[in-house]
Structure formats: structure tokens, C-alpha cells
Design a protein that fits this description.
Helices cover 39% and strands 19% of the residues. By secondary structure, the chain is of the alpha+beta class. The chain folds into 2 domains: 141 residues, Beta-lactamase (3-Layer(aba) Sandwich), CATH 3.40.710; 168 residues, D-tyrosyl-trna(Tyr) Deacylase, Chain: A. The strands form 4 sheets. Strands 2-1-16-15-14-13 form a 6-stranded antiparallel sheet, with helices on both faces. Strands 11-6-4-3-12 form a 5-stranded mixed sheet, with helices on one face. A hairpin with a 2-residue loop joins β13 and β14. The termini are far apart.
Length: 420
């Protein structure tokens, strides 16, 4: 009997050991399941409010600093990027021209006493710059009999898709020699007379002729083509030369610099291409974006610069350097609805652009570019964290008012590592 009891106790102990082992294995398995799957389940639950806001025709993508995608929806669908396209424009410009590139403008004299000005696409030839140039030229000449302006480095017939002729500064014509973004800021005084609305810019008669029929005070581009815009730059230059004591007996005319003309002075811009990029992003300036595209086209394939050469260079760069395929890039500002990128394409662009991200507009720890067309809102950029920047892309076609709400949700969900 004692032997039987001992055997029964042994069997019971084995059974308890088996049950304990099974429980231990089950417990370990549950811990493993929690360790592997709960983070993603938690992330999915947290991210759900974001996904709920992203509709069927919208795209979203969020990736960590390594490029690992954290959240994506419709991320390979080609969408209208609007002004976020300017990130690719600047990236390509840095590639072809260099971040430290500076535009130049040349001044010549000929054997007939003319002063000639040849432009090379500088988008920041402002009144202040022209005043500085005039003061330097006054040390070299005292008079000239006419001013000839040379726009031949760019084609004079550049049509930008998405741009129609209007007086909106965004529709200003492109020209190798331009002044004040080929725009005029005017107002009317108490007597109804047209005067400049900015103290640094004189209201030259040539500009008055172009805007005398305008009814509203505003910054406008009254020039129908590159010829008219180039002549305006010439008239401003002539004015500042007179202000510095250099006299002129003749008119401002279109023309070209000839091989036998004598180089008098080369103005090298005080602004690097990086400086230009900062202004481009700050004001989302379409004129600057496409001036740069035409200039890099001339650099890549030779003058005269055309929009076609510029877009071809950018597409070649996008394919060979970035590895992008199937994108559409028809101009550099994002104003055309023909441009197409996917959120995944933009992620590749953002990763390449990351060293330059601080030229973008920033709001706290977010560096970004916005884009807006009728029915389209886009955002692309970086959220700074301790581990490195998070990338985000929003291409929204059905959303209107909730773009900023989405950004805030992304920051709360994925930016918890903290900003710098």
C-alpha cells in the first residue's frame, strides 16, 4: 500500500510539473506576443485619427530619421505637389549650380559710346542692388549716349505651364535681365498721381505708361513679355546712373553685346544660391523658382536658357541621381497642375534635401513647405527630434481645413522623441 501511495504521489507531482511547465510556456508566449505585436498595435491605434482624416484621393507618408516608413496611405499615387515642388527645384539647382553660386550681370561699352547691360538670370536684381551698381559705374564713366539691354542669355519666348498673362506678380515674365521680380509696387497720392509705394524704387515714366490704366494700388507685373520687362530694368538702371551723376543723351533700347565690345564691370551678386533659396521658400516666389530653372538649363545645355532645357535637366537629375521614375516636372514653381509626384517620390527628395532643410520655413521644430492650388493643399518637410528629423508628406485633394490638424497629430504621434 505504501508503495502504491508513493507511485501515486510521483504521478501527481509529474502532472503538476507538466501543468507548471505548460503555464510557464504559455506565459512566455504571451510575453513574446506582447513584445512583438503590441507596439505596432498601439501605434496603429494612435495613428488611426490621422488615417481617418486622410481620404481616398489623398496621400500621406511619415518616416523616421532612417527613412523607415511609419505611416503611409496612397503613398505611391502620383499627385499634384503644388509649391512643395520647389524643394526639388532648389535641390536640382544646388546640384547644377552649387550652393555658393552667385549670379552675375555684365556692363560693356562700345566704340559708339553706348553702355550695354547683359543679364544672366539674376532673380534678385532689386532697386537697392541697381543703386549700388550705379554708384560703382559712376567711378568708371561720366556719360553714355544710349543704354542697350541684352536679354539674350534667356530665350525671349518662355511660356510657363499654369501661368497666363495677368498683372499678378506670380505671372511675371521671365527674363535674363530683370528688376524687382519684374514687378512694380505703386499707389496714387492725394492728387491721383501714380507714385512708387516703396521708397527705394523710383517711379520711372516707362512704368507709369504701363500702369496708368490700373485702378487698384498694388504690386503688379504690367509687362506682357520679356522684352518689356528687360526694358524696365534698363530704365531703372538709367535712372540710378543719372542720380549718381552719369549723364545719358539717348534712349534705352534692346540689343546684344558684341565680341568687340569692352567689358567695363561685372557685378557679382551679394547673394549666394542658398540665400536665394531662403527667399524663395520664405515668400514661395514662383518667379524666382522658374528663373533658377531656366538658368540651370542654360548651365546644363548652353544658352539661351529655356524652360524646356531646365525641366529636362531636373528630370535627368531626378532619374539618374535620385532614382525617381514616372514623375512629371513641367516647371519649377508648382503652379502647374501638370506636375506629378508621389508621396514616396517626395520622401526620396526630402532625404536628399535633409542637409539643406534649414533654408525652409520653420515653425518651432517643424521645417516645411506648403503648397496650395484650387482644390489642393500640400505639406512636406521635417519634424526635429532627438534622434534626427522625421519626414512627412501630405498631398491632399479632398481635405481643405484640416491640413494643419494633420500636422499637429503627426507631431503628437511620432514626434514624442522631443525636439532640439
Amino acid at each position: 500500500m505504501e508503495n502504491k501511495n508513493r507511485q501515486r504521489a510521483t504521478r501527481e507531482q509529474k502532472t503538476e510539473n507538466s501543468i507548471w511547465s505548460a503555464r510557464k510556456a504559455l506565459s512566455s508566449f504571451i510575453i513574446l506576443i506582447c513584445f512583438v505585436f503590441l507596439p505596432s498595435l498601439s501605434s496603429g491605434t494612435t495613428a488611426q485619427p490621422i488615417l481617418d482624416l486622410v481620404k481616398e484621393n489623398d496621400s500621406i507618408l511619415v518616416a523616421d530619421h532612417t527613412g523607415r516608413i511609419l505611416l503611409a496611405k496612397n503613398d505611391v499615387v502620383k499627385q499634384i505637389p503644388a509649391s512643395t515642388l520647389k524643394i526639388l527645384t532648389v535641390l536640382a539647382a544646388f546640384h547644377f549650380l552649387g550652393e555658393d553660386y552667385r549670379f552675375t550681370t555684365e556692363f560693356y561699352t562700345d566704340d559708339k559710346g553706348a553702355l550695354k547691360v547683359k543679364g544672366y538670370g539674376d532673380p534678385l536684381l532689386t532697386s537697392e542692388v541697381l543703386q549700388e551698381i550705379a554708384s560703382l559705374l559712376a567711378k568708371k564713366i561720366t556719360r553714355y549716349n544710349r543704354l542697350i539691354v541684352d536679354n539674350s542669355y534667356f530665350s525671349n519666348k518662355i511660356a510657363v505651364p499654369g501661368v497666363v498673362y495677368s498683372t499678378n506678380p506670380y505671372d511675371a515674365p521671365l527674363s535674363a535681365l530683370s528688376a524687382n521680380f519684374n514687378s512694380v509696387f505703386f499707389k496714387r497720392n492725394n492728387r491721383g498721381r501714380i507714385v512708387s509705394a516703396e521708397p527705394q524704387t523710383p517711379m520711372v515714366p516707362y512704368a507709369v505708361e504701363k500702369i496708368e490704366k490700373m485702378t487698384n494700388d498694388d504690386r503688379i507685373s504690367p509687362f506682357k513679355n520679356a522684352y518689356e520687362a528687360t526694358l524696365y530694368a534698363g530704365h531703372l538702371t538709367s535712372y540710378f546712373l543719372r542720380e549718381n551723376g552719369v549723364t545719358c543723351a539717348g534712349a534705352v533700347q534692346l540689343g546684344t553685346v558684341l565680341p568687340e565690345d569692352k567689358l567695363l564691370y561685372t557685378y557679382t551678386s551679394q547673394f549666394t544660391l542658398r540665400d536665394i533659396a531662403e527667399r524663395l521658400f520664405q515668400f514661395s516666389n514662383n518667379f524666382i523658382a522658374n528663373q533658377v530653372i531656366v538658368a540651370l538649363g542654360a548651365k546644363a545645355y548652353g544658352p539661351p536658357g529655356t524652360l524646356g532645357k531646365g525641366t529636362r535637366a531636373v528630370l535627368d537629375y531626378a532619374q539618374k541621381i535620385l532614382g525617381l521614375s514616372g514623375i512629371r516636372f513641367v516647371e519649377g514653381s508648382g503652379i502647374s497642375r501638370q506636375n506629378r509626384l508621389s508621396a514616396r517620390d517626395m520622401l526620396i527628395i526630402l532625404k536628399k534635401f535633409e542637409p539643406h532643410r534649414r533654408v525652409l520655413t520653420n515653425k518651432g521644430d517643424i521645417y516645411y513647405k506648403t503648397g496650395t492650388l484650387h482644390g489642393v493643399k500640400t505639406r512636406a518637410g521635417y519634424i526635429e527630434t532627438r534622434d534626427g528629423p522625421l519626414y512627412f508628406v501630405l498631398f491632399l485633394n479632398t481635405l481643405r481645413e484640416d491640413a494643419d490638424k494633420l500636422i499637429n497629430l503627426i507631431v503628437r504621434t511620432y514626434g514624442s522623441a522631443g525636439g532640439h
